[in-house]
Amino acid sequence: MSLDSLRELTGAPWLTSGGKGWLCGIPEVSQERDSAPFRRELQMIVRKYDDIDWHTGGDFPADLDASHARTHIALFLEWAIRRGHESDTLRSLHPDALHSIRQGQLSGKDLLAQCCDDKLTSDDLSETGNGFAQAYYEASCLEDYVDLSDDDLPTLYHEPYDQKKTRDICEKLDARFHQWSKQLDHE
Q1: Can you give the pTM of this predicted structure?
Q2: Is 9 helix (H, G, I), strand (E, B) or coil?
């Protein structure tokens, strides 16, 4: 399924790549508001990167339950936890769940549902995790997921949450994180 098809199917404003409004859940800052004080204020607001509610309305496939809208979000969250990019808050509130993720005894989908209210927010990630999530969700998240999807499936929501998909996504995220880190070193 192409990115344009997904945008058309979901009608989701966070799938836009420009203009005003929302871009993967992060409010775009207008030039009038692109000032240091406003940016500091914006950083103090909890950012919502993704939410299954953004996916389950409208034309969400009738043959799937809502847990399938969780897959791509959970894969990112699981990667972040396995790489140590979870927040101190998540660590203090859910240490057993995080340990279970790292041991492969709990899936990112379960953690997202049980501990994160089916949302990926800045409260779930460390400072480094948030820096990467902001850049990645704006630039490459959806495109990477589409690139790694099975074109024979009817929609992206039909993608499996299995070891192969987790491995593929983690490898892509590792590469993107490495690129992002190198950019920071050169700034």
Answers
A1: 0.77
A2: helix
d(CA 111, CA 100): 9
Each residue of 48-86: pLDDT tens digit? 999 999 999 888 999 999 999 999 999 999 999 999 999
Q: Are 10 and 55 in contact (CB under 8 A)?
A: yes
- Distance separating alpha carbons of residues 98 and 96, to the nearest angstrom: 5
Q: Which helix (H) or strand (E) holds 48?
A: strand 48-51
Residue 83, C-beta contacts closer than 8 angstroms, at least 6 positions apart: 174, 177
Q: Which helix (H) or strand (E) holds 26?
A: strand 26-27
3-state secondary structure of 63: coil
How deeply is 100 buried, as exposed, middle or buried, from its count of CB atoms within 10 A (0-12, 13-18, 19+)?
A: middle
CA distance to 7, 20, 178, per residue, from 97 (Å): 33, 38, 27
- Reference 137, options 153, 121, 149; nearest CA is 121
The number of residues making up the chain comes to 187
